[in-house]
Description:
Layout: H1 20-35, H2 51-54, E1 66-81, E2 86-93, E3 96-103, H3 104-107, H4 109-116, E4 123-132, E5 138-149, H5 165-170, H6 172-178, H7 180-202, E6 206-207, E7 213-214, E8 226-229, E9 234-238, H8 243-251, E10 256-264, E11 276-285, H9 289-306, E12 320-323, H10 324-332, H11 342-351, H12 364-376, E13 384-390, E14 406-414, E15 417-424, H13 429-444, H14 455-462, E16 468-474, H15 475-483
Parallel strand pairs: 3-5, 6-10, 12-13
Antiparallel strand pairs: 1-2, 1-4, 2-3, 4-5, 7-9, 8-9, 10-11, 11-16, 13-14, 14-15, 15-16
The chain binds one RNA strand through helix 1, strand 1, strand 2, strand 3 and helix 5.
Amino acid sequence: MREDGGRVTDQAEQPEPSVPELLAARRAKLDRLREQGVDPFPHAFGGVTPIGDVLPVWDHLEAGEETGHAYRVAGRLAARRGQGKMAFLDLVDRSGRLQLQARVDVLGEEPMARLLELDLGDLLGVDGEIFRSRRGELTLRVTQATVLAKSLRPPPDKHHGLTDVETRFRRRELDLMANEDARRTFITRARVIREVRGYLDEQGFIEVETPILQPLYGGALARPFVTHHNALDRDLYLRIATELYLKRCIVGGLERVYELGKDFRNEGISFKHNPEFTMVEWYEAYADYEDAMARTEAVVARVADACGYDGELDFSPPWKRVTLRDAIAERTGIDVLEHRDQAALAAAIAASDRVDLPTADRTWPQLVDDLLSHHVEPNVTDPVFLIDYPKELSPFAKDHRSEPGLVERFEAFCSGMEIANAFTELNDPDEQRRRFDAQARLAGEGDEEAQPYDEVFVQALEQGMPPTGGVGLGIDRLVMLMTGKRSIREIVLFPAMRD
RNA sequence: GCCCCUGUAGCUCAACUGGCAGAGCAGCGGACUCUUAAUCCGAAGGUUCCAGGUUCGAUUCCUGGCGGGGGCACCA
């Protein structure tokens, strides 16, 4: 379905049918239903049993065996076999697929004809009795069929489904309709979110909602989306993180808070990046990053268990803990803390035959991050905590209690991806001011990801924030791990696409 | 932003070295009371993403554009 310039048509444009004969046939049937006095779009259909609830009850039924047991089911017509005095049809709902049997001697001539005239893709409600066919298929013998909604466009191929990735992502409804795996993926996604909430709720965390439209963005190193408030005549930013507001909740005494929702980052799209993505952040008073690690392990293990994860990865606690310094040294032979300035580290990288990275125009912390992302991150399989990061990359993390120049921070990696980022939170307001000053200098030097100075946040810290451990856990990436999907587009219902 | 791959019927895919664009499913007409990718008979269905170029002739080769995928860069 393409128009001028190869652009894909969308709903907003004139719906000029590219397959007039296919659409006309469906519209003709719609008209016929109305002529017969049948409402093709009734308002409701009560008392439906999910197909998934029907199937297991009759596992024991022998081929050819009747039950006399009546059910009412509803779903989309997915297949049809036979056109004569008896036909089999497949009905699909969210929970499964059930074969229907339509017999003229049960239904009568006219209802039979109406049922057989339905198109694949039509929504259908059915009453009937369950039995097992001679060939062994659990089947509902239709006694009454009700059109619930006429489908005016052809569904994807009944056997091959829909594989074209562009259509799958742009027209997710077709993907969900055609591919059971897609339906399962998003059911798993909901399960992941439910378990994360369940864990935090049970542990006494309070779910809060903080602004998505923010006068200042902060809490992460990223470029924001900018929007405009007309009445206030000022620009606002879509949040890149919930961090600073959540810490203000901790200052206020809520003690354990979390927020699960969308963040927005104005950066590239890749198999693991979507411009809007879902993150849960939680903050816990009187805790540090060790406590945060324990919670991260616990919640991910719980999610894996609830999802019935049976892949290669081992999520069971405790996860390995490796300092960032050791992880880089193990992979590259370079001790970043032995080369504590840009020139020394650049020289060490140049001298190494295991590392091939450009060092010009890269700061020391950027080089550390390059070593991490090129030589450590891609090689991680089972989940691991990399701990104790250089201060320069972590403007909200508290200085390490024993290692000068480092902060108490961890990132959790799994399957080549970062899934969580956490600190013992910086709660010294004067030190926070110095970190903002440093960020302001970086911004002055053109760093577009530097943090803007947030005076309101610093004043909140001046009120006194208890020692606090905070975690940000990427929900999309967690869902990728649980479903084994390699692209974030598979686990975001409507991923960002060009248009 | 750069590099590589890619775009054919509603869907899934063919089309040799440049030589009349095909099949299955779906849809349409017909047969069929145990099929399950139902089967059988018949007819139909195309701006080969778009615009140029080369050529007697372009789905095929070239250039540009648009869309998609992968990679790099950036990031979580």
